[in-house]
Design goal:
By secondary structure, this protein is of the alpha+beta class. 30% of the residues lie in helices and 20% in strands.
Length: 442
């Protein structure tokens, strides 16, 4: 017999909350069914959070991940998948609050546990994806999730980045819904990670800063990290370098012209190199010249050439220190070529992000590392890889201890994107154990 979904005692909410909190409805009941509000063990009573890792179900995670993958949700078109998650929450008696800069692009804040009884641990994951641009290269329909013949991989757009990890988060919310948590467990299910974060995690943090949402003490990020601990991320800063020459008719190129492209080529070759630095949590910094623009006509020697630099920073570096290194290399070029003239603009788009790090002695880092040892029997490793940024940087820059630990996968953003299913199970068990360490009643 189905249980009622809207019992106030199960979802722990009041009508006075400032945001619209989604309640159970007939659509959710029809789609998902209605589980009991209590999640009792076979012996009876409330299951403690420490046992959640033992109750992680591989098939349940895969089924939920498949349901998410089946709903197309490219950045800017996330409403349908967020409505699906809201319905899932209603069916499972989990409080779900909609917060949005744009109502068509809502974020969801899921909450279980007891307020003011301990810390708040938040899990963060995004459900927007990049579009499918190479359909002919897919071996399966990107929105018809498929498991590999050997059962190790789940394929589909967003399987790796990062709908499957969100399925892990939702599964843990269901497993821990009735556990005696000392504090609260949240999930921040967000939009807009693939483009800017403005409508997603940045807005959620704006609401936290304004006091309209509770501030987490700790945040877990589920982006791909190959089951390694990601407590730091590279920062980034852009630079624009303009090299100056002297415009002239092509016929006079060797007489009166000074080719700015040729000068810029010297600069590019001087800068395009492996940077001999290393940080144990993230690895090496990166420099790459990614755009170049010059010339006004095919028969005019270019008088200016501008190229842009994408410089990725490691902890200990700043935008200014990176710019100083670039300036030093360009001065070397100028010392060898008296006609080499240039100008640098630091952070021309105003989007620099500092390298960000949650210290090794953070309670969150230590709890996660201890949980990795308990679950896997191996010593945790840091995620030292050539990886892009995650929304974790926004929480760290807001002063919130944040650590990533997610599954492995392949072909994110490309054809035949896949996540490793065993890794999802390990992630779920490690996260459950970490949460138990941070929130379990003593």
């Amino acid at each position: 017999m189905p249980f009622a979904l809207a019992e106030q005692s199960c979802v722990h909410r009041t009508s006075a909350e400032s945001h619209a909190i989604m309640t159970a409805n007939e659509t959710a009941r029809a789609v998902f069914g209605a589980p009991p509000c209590r999640n009792d063990s076979a012996e009876g009573g409330i299951v403690p959070p420490s046992s959640a890792a033992e109750r992680v179900e591989r098939d349940a995670i895969v089924d939920l991940a498949s349901s998410l993958i089946a709903i197309p949700s490219p950045s800017g078109d996330e409403l349908a998948i967020m409505d699906f998650v809201a319905g899932w929450c209603a069916a499972h008696g989990i409080q779900c609050e909609r917060v949005a800069r744009d109502p068509a692009r809502p974020n969801l804040v899921l909450t279980i546990g007891e307020p003011d009884s301990g810390p708040i641990v938040a899990m963060n994951g995004h459900l927007d994806t990049v579009p499918v641009s190479d359909l002919a290269a897919w071996r399966t329909d990107p929105f018809d999730p498929a498991i590999s013949d050997d059962g190790t991989r789940l394929y589909g757009r967003g399987a790796s980045d990062m709908k499957s990890s969100v399925a892990v988060m939702l599964s843990l919310m269901a497993l821990l819904k009735d556990a005696p948590l000392r504090g609260q467990l949240q999930t921040h299910v967000v939009v807009d990670e693939e483009t800017s974060g403005k409508y997603g995690t940045i807005f959620v943090l704006d609401e936290i800063a304004a006091g309209r949402l509770p501030r987490p003490d700790y945040v877990l990020i589920g982006e791909k990290s190959d089951l390694k601990v990601r407590n730091a991320e590279r920062g980034l800063v852009g630079l624009a370098v303009t090299c100056y020459g002297r415009a002239a008719h092509t016929a006079a190129a060797r007489v009166t012209g000074i080719n700015a492209i040729a000068k810029a080529a010297k600069a590019v070759l001087a800068l395009e190199e492996d940077l001999d630095k290393f940080h144990p949590a993230v690895g090496k910094p990166v420099i790459s010249i990614n755009q170049i623009q010059a010339g006004i006509a095919h028969n005019v020697v270019p008088g200016e050439c501008t190229f842009t630099i994408d410089r990725r920073l490691i902890p200990g570096e700043t935008a200014e220190s990176a710019a100083a290194e670039i300036e030093a290399r360009l001065r070397q070029v100028a010392a060898e070529d008296p006609e080499f003239r240039y100008e640098i603009v630091l952070d021309p788009h105003g989007d620099a992000i500092p390298a960000n790090l949650t210290p090794d002695d953070s309670p969150l880092v230590r709890a996660l590392q201890a949980s990795v040892r308990d679950v896997t029997g191996t010593e945790p490793e840091y995620f030292v890889a050539w990886a892009g940024a995650t929304d974790g940087r926004f929480y760290r820059l807001a002063g919130i201890d944040t650590v990533g630990y997610g599954p492995g996968g392949e072909n994110a953003h490309g054809a035949n994107e896949a996540v490793f299913i065993d890794d999802l199970v390990t992630q779920a068990k490690v996260w459950a154990t970490t949460i138990a360490r941070l929130l379990a009643a003593e």
